[in-house]
């Protein structure tokens, strides 16, 4: 009887814990070092979307782009300290800017997310809070008190919020954790893989490590091959992107505080700085010096391709992929005379697109570039 009771209690206990266990046959595994470069022109379709400039929509910097609910949400930490919202054609809709120290206001916004209903969430690290703003009325808000410092977050559903890189006393305590709005508790999902070095003293080569593709959220465990999918209150290992070029822990330990040596290193992968899913596959970018590497994992073929995007003039020299909109990958471009000259030399531009580039100026907002890949 005691043994039966123990088994029942054990089953109940473990069923209530966050889990990362899964069927290992579902994990994608690739060796990046042996992927052959392709001669195929990687980009098959491009859209250029100018972001409308009004008295309320001047963009100082694009720090993050999300596409949700047929809208583009632009995080601007400089000019607006908030979120600018545009429709699919780039027409300005409205801006969320609630800086201050009062109720419903934020002091130091570090990240944002948007749920399936269009509600906007902004993380204020200074106050250790996430503030939820109603999609239809930003005056309606809810403050979520987390009582911890973290780098990024993502809304998983109406109950769970995933937090990345929770740090305490100057060191990363959890790489991933889940917060329950119902229980008001934080549970660890993933501990740091490297424990003998101080990751906060190594420069980041990616603006974020949580990557949203529609309703799906992926996370890259830095300096490892591991890409995770966050699902409900669990994580699943989605992909192992193996390489001999990842730093060893002792190498990173020697680079702590030496930003210049880390930045100029030409032998190692410094980061996986993009991992996005479309209906046809997964796009991945690795940060290497002097140029990044790009990969495409096909869902239909089940294999991986190397992409030569560095010479693709349709992207106007922009190699930082910032998100995904339906089946399009998204990047952005700021104005320069050189960029306009490059754009006007692209074959097959419509007259409207040529006119758009001709009217682009240093006083304009950035342009979003949406592109699809030739691979299926």
From TrEMBL:
Cited InterPro entries: 6-blade_b-propeller_TolB-like
Record Pfam families: DUF5128
Protein name, UniProt field: 6-bladed beta-propeller
Organism field: Bacteroides intestinalis
Upper taxonomic lineage: Bacteria, Pseudomonadati, Bacteroidota, Bacteroidia, Bacteroidales
């Amino acid at each position: 009887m005691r043994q039966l009771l123990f088994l029942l209690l054990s089953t109940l206990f473990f069923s209530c814990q966050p889990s990362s266990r899964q069927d290992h046959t579902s994990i994608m595994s690739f060796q990046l070092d042996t992927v052959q470069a392709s001669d195929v022109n990687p980009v098959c379709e491009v859209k250029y979307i100018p972001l409308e400039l009004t008295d309320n929509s001047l963009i100082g910097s694009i720090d993050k782009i999300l596409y949700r609910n047929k809208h583009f949400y632009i995080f601007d930490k400089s000019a607006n300290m908030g979120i600018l919202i545009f429709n699919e054609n780039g027409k300005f809709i409205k801006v969320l800017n609630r800086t201050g120290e009062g109720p419903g206001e934020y002091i130091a916004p570090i990240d944002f997310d948007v749920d399936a209903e269009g509600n906007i969430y902004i993380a204020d690290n200074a106050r250790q809070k996430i503030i939820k703003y109603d999609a239809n009325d930003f005056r309606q808000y809810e403050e979520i008190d987390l009582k911890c410092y973290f780098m990024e977050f993502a809304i998983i559903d109406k109950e769970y919020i995933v937090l990345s890189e929770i740090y305490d006393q100057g060191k990363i305590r959890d790489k991933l954790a889940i917060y329950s709005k119902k229980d008001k508790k934080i549970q660890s999902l993933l501990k740091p893989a490297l424990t003998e070095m101080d990751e906060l003293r190594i420069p980041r080569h990616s603006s974020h490590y949580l990557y949203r593709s529609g309703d799906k959220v992926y996370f890259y465990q830095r300096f490892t091959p591991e890409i995770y999918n966050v699902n409900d209150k669990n994580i699943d290992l989605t992909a192992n992107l193996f390489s001999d070029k990842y730093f060893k822990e002792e190498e990173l330990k020697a680079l702590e505080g030496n930003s210049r040596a880390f930045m100029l290193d030409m032998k190692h992968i410094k980061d996986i700085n993009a991992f996005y899913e479309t209906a046809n596959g997964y796009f991945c970018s690795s940060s290497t010096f002097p140029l990044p590497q790009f990969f495409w994992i096909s869902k239909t073929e089940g294999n991986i391709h190397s992409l030569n995007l560095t010479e693709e003039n349709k992207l106007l020299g922009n190699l930082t992929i910032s998100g995904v909109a339906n089946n399009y990958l998204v990047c952005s471009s700021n104005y320069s005379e050189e960029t306009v000259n490059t754009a006007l030399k692209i074959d097959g531009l419509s007259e409207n697109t040529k006119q758009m580039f001709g009217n682009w100026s240093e006083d304009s907002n950035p342009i979003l570039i949406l592109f699809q890949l030739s691979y299926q």
